[in-house]
Amino acid sequence: MSNEDLLLVAEQNQAVILTLNRPGVMNCLNFDLLYALRDKIDNLQYTSDIRCLIITGTGKKSFCAGADLKERATLSPEEVKKFILTIRNLLTSIQNLPIPVISAVNGIALGGGTEVALASDIRIAADTASMGLTETRLAIIPGGGGTQRLPRIIGVAKAKELIFTGKRVNAKEALEIGLVNQVVPQENLLDACMEMAKMIAETGPIAVEMAKYAIDRGIETDLATGLAIESNAYRVTIPTEDRVEGLTAFREKRKPVYKGR
Q1: Whole-prediction pTM
Q2: Residue range 74-133, pLDDT digits in tens
C-alpha cells in the first residue's frame, strides 16, 4: 500500500478531511503513515483557502489504535526513539496549524490515537467511540505529548487517574470529563464535523488564527502575560480589510464576505 493509500485526502467546503486508512490494523500508526501525515500537515501550513482540518479514521470500528505494535517489535531502541520523536513533532505541528483542527473520533482511539485527538482543537466523538492513554499497561508512558496535553484539557487529577491505570473511557464519560466537545450518533459524525467546519468558515480567517494563537500561547502563561498576548493578537486584526467588512456587513444587515486580508 502506497503512502497515498494509507492517508485518504478529501476537500469539501474549505475543509480538508484526512482519513487514516489502515483498517486491517485498526488504523494504527506506522512510520509510513506518520510520514504521509507529516507531508500533508506541512502543505497545509501554506494553504490560504482552507479554513479547517478534520482528521478521522476509516470505518466504524477504529479512529486510531495507536502505534503499530507489530512494527514496534521489529525496531531497535534507536528506531523506537526516532518513532517517538517523529510522532511528537507531527502532533506539535498539528497543534500549531494556524487553522482549527477537528478530530472526528469514529471508534477506538488508544495511545497515539488519543494523542492525535488531544493535539486537535476540537474533538467530536461517535457514540460508539472509546479513548484512553493505555501505554502504562505496556510498561511505557505516552510519548506523543499525552502526559502534557491531557492534564491541560481534563485537569491534572483525572489525567493522572487515566494514565496511571491505562483506563479506557467510553464516549459518554469522555464528554463528562471534557475530553471531547460533542458526542453524536456514529452515522452523523462527519456531518457534525462538517457543520462545525462550516460555522468556522463563516468567521474571519485572521481573527480565528489570532484567537487560536492567543488561547494556545496564553494558556501556558500567567494571566497578565496572557492578556498581553491577547492584546498583541487583537492588534493584528485592526488594520485588516476583513475587520472593515465585518462592520460594514453588520451595518448593512448582510453576511460578511471575508477574504483573509
Answers
A1: 0.92
A2: 888 888 899 999 999 999 999 999 999 999 999 999 999 999 999 999 999 999 999 999
Q: Are residues 32 and 156 in the same domain?
A: yes
State yes or no: is 132 an active-site residue: no
Burial of residue 35 (CB within 10 Å: 0-12, 13-18, 19+) is middle
- CATH assignment of the domain containing 102: 3.90.226.10
Q: Which domain holds residue 215?
A: 205-252
Confirm whether 228 is a catalytic residue: no
Q: Grid coordinates representing 214?
A: 492567543
The residue behind cell 457514540 is 127
Q: Which residue among the candidates 115, 126, 143, 207 is catalytic per the annotation?
A: 115
Q: Which three cell numbers stand for residue 236?
A: 493584528
Q: Please confirm, yes or no, whether 112 is among the known catalytic residues.
A: yes
Please give the single-letter amino acid code of residue 191.
Answer: D
